[in-house]
Write a structure and sequence with these properties.
- By secondary structure, this protein is mainly alpha-helical.
- Helix content is 69%, strand content 0%.
- It is built from 18 helices and no strands.
- Helix 15 runs antiparallel to helix 16.
- It is globular.
- The structure holds heme-as and copper (I) ion.
- Belongs to the heme-copper respiratory oxidase family.
Length: 570
């Protein structure tokens, strides 16, 4: 047995670099989260409320896009090389995508943070959904475009590695981790088309002044065409870890490899034709298409429900290997002192709740109650903010030693860190869900209105605000502990085998399962057809109604923009 860094030293360097970018973004993004959590609850306001959108944009972009996707880039590189048992075919390409994604992310971050310095005449306080007519500096959109192209190149890198492997192993089943990476990347190629078109053909020319007007509904729809699949682009790295690493950490083996393949195929097929479930309240899209999006979304619950079954069954198998008994008593013998295990298990537990609030979002009629309220941030702090983020941090405790050849600085601090995240998120997201039900809006610096008070039927609004602020503080503390632990781990003395990186074979392997599961071309074709069915007519009618470039001029977010808007209306 040898360590990943000894076997693939070049790839280990790239992965360490992607993790470094990911964790820097995590630190800054979490700090922004603390500022805004304290601001909107009214406890501490260190910045004027006019800067709230700058901080919120930074928080969303740095955490939801940079932290998660750079982690994915590293994790997928690790997964492809170790499961194909071969280095990447062209390490220059690997460094090229790392360079492009990092430069793109840096450009976007500069454009956002510049908004805090009025003298710079640059801002991007458009939130991470960059809805028109909010307009950012061109550097923001150019950075986004570079970042996306970089991820496409990363996908190409992994596909090339697979092609080489395939030529040497013509009759073998695709190794599971590579299968997961490839299906996720096909989904990514299909879905990023939407955002790429909207950034390259509309936002960049518009922000540069080449075109004067934009069609907000068209760019919103193209955004959500990508915006729903991106949530699975965040989730699939977590699933990769839950399916292939969590069973091992539990002391057992994956319950079923074919079932895992079915799950990833379902995500490829169903992730994209559902984006309109973010637009139930958008006028200009016919109800029938919203209904189709809802139906597809309900089907899309299936792969996560299958995951809940398979992953928990694998954990139970692990527990029984360790001597666990009874219907539920086996839970007690799981390795709860291991931060990698506990972090992932708690992340899964929270995802069960997050999936539940997702089901509520997805219902067209109930969505009207929660849309644009704090409920929605409550939902996504359980999903991307915990299922994904906590799994990634927990995974780092197991992966980083394999990349550096150094042991983790402190397991007790790691354990305390993952538990702090869990407790902080229980407080914050529960209060956010409840606040949303009272109608308290999201994306609002000062959610108080004159002559109107939100009233809670259970508890009080003050108590909800306190829970959100305490939760935000605990989450920030947790990130600081995580970064501190990883940083100190990197200066430990190298040792021979800081962690056992082997992954045992699944209980039920791929051989014998239908070969069609591995037919990526077939699944890609069906996914494309479903996208065409769901999107061609809505997009055509949006363009017919308001034209390709629309009639809407840019609205700057600052107060003079408000006056401008009043002028336009007058
Ligand atoms: Fe969502 C809004 C519907 C999943 C992220 N979602 C958002 C936004 C984000 C987001 C960021 O239909 C806000 C966007 C914005 O800024 O406006 N979401 C769903 C549905 C699912 C779902 C149906 N969302 C996610 C995931 C995300 C994410 C995953 C990120 C990673 N969401 C919506 C809708 C909206 C929305 C509407 C629009 C709301 C609006 O009005 O704006 C489903 O995929 C959820 C399925 C999940 C389950 C749970 C299965 C349970 C498992 C746990 C296993 C347990 C383990 C551990 C492993 C059915 C797999 C066991 C432990 C032991 C100790 C035993
Ligand atoms: Cu969605």
């Amino acid at each position: 047995m040898s360590l990943y860094v000894d076997e693939y030293p070049e790839e280990a360097k790239v992965i360490k670099a992607t993790f470094l970018v990911s964790f820097v973004a995590l630190g800054i993004g979490a700090f922004f989260g603390l500022i805004q959590g304290l601001h909107r609850t009214g406890f501490v306001r260190i910045l004027p409320s006019t800067d709230y959108y700058t901080i919120l944009t930074g928080h969303g972009v740095l955490l939801a896009l940079v932290f998660t996707i750079f982690y994915l880039l590293g994790l997928f590189t690790w997964a492809v090389t170790r499961s194909l048992e071969s280095p990447l075919p062209n390490i220059k390409l690997t460094w090229a995508w790392f360079g492009l994604t990092t430069t793109g992310a840096t450009f976007a971050a500069i454009a956002i943070v510049a908004g805090l310095f009025p003298s710079l005449d640059m801002s991007a306080d458009v939130l991470y959904t960059f809805y028109a007519p909010l307009q950012a500096h061109p550097l923001f959109y150019v950075g986004l475009a570079m970042f996306i192209i970089g991820t496409w190149m990363a996908g190409a890198d992994w596909f090339l590695a697979f092609r080489k492997w395939r030529s040497e192993h013509p009759d073998e089943r695709i190794p599971l981790q590579t299968f997961m990476v490839l299906t996720t990347m096909v989904m990514w190629y299909l879905s990023t088309l939407g955002v790429a078109i909207s950034v390259v053909f509309f936002f960049i020319p518009w922000s540069l002044g080449f075109i004067d007007t934009i069609n907000p509904l068209l760019t919103r729809t193209l955004f959500w065409y990508f915006g729903h699949p991106v949530v699975y682009f965040w989730l699939m790295p977590a699933y990769l870890l839950w399916y292939t690493v969590l069973p091992k950490l539990s002391g057992g083996r994956l319950f079923s490899d074919p079932l895992a393949r079915v799950v990833f195929v379902l995500f490829l097929l169903l992730s994209t034709p559902v984006g309109i479930h973010h637009q139930y309240l958008d006028p200009g899209i016919a109800e029938g298409f919203k209904f189709i999006a809802m139906t597809n979304t309900m089907f899309l619950l299936l792969p996560s429900l299958l995951t809940a079954f398979t992953v928990v069954a694998s954990m139970e198998h692990g527990a029984r290997q360790r001597g666990g008994k009874g219907y539920l008593r086996w839970l007690g013998v799981l390795p709860w002192r291991d931060p990698a295990f506990t972090g992932m298990a708690l992340a899964g537990l929270m995802f069960a709740a997050g999936g539940f609030s997702g089901m509520i979002n997805a219902g067209m009629n109930i969505n009207y109650l929660v849309h644009n309220t704090l409920w929605v941030p409550g939902h996504f702090h359980l999903t991307v903010g915990t299922a994904v983020a906590l799994t990634m941090m927990a995974g780092a405790y197991w992966l980083v030693p394999q990349l550096t050849g150094r042991r983790l600085y402190s397991r007790p601090i790691g354990l305390f860190q993952v538990v702090t995240w869990f407790v902080g998120m229980v407080l914050m997201s529960n209060a956010m869900h409840r606040a949303g039900l009272l109608g308290i809006p999201r994306r609002t610096a000062e959610p108080q209105y004159q002559s109107f008070d939100f009233t809670a039927t259970i508890g009080s609004v003050a108590e909800l605000r306190a829970q959100i602020a305490i939760g935000a503080a605990l989450l920030f503390l947790s990130v600081v502990l995580f970064l501190f632990n990883i940083l100190l781990s990197s200066i430990e003395d190298p040792i021979e085998m800081p962690v056992d990186g082997r992954i045992p074979a699944p209980l039920s392997g791929a051989s014998g399962s239908p070969v069609v599961l591995d037919n990526l071309k077939l699944w890609t074709a069906i996914a494309a057809i479903l996208v065409i069915l769901a999107y061609v007519i809505p997009l055509a009618s949006i363009i017919r109604d308001a034209g390709l470039f629309g009639r809407t001029v840019a609205v700057p977010v600052l107060i003079d923009g408000f006056n401008l808007l009043l002028g336009v209306i007058a």
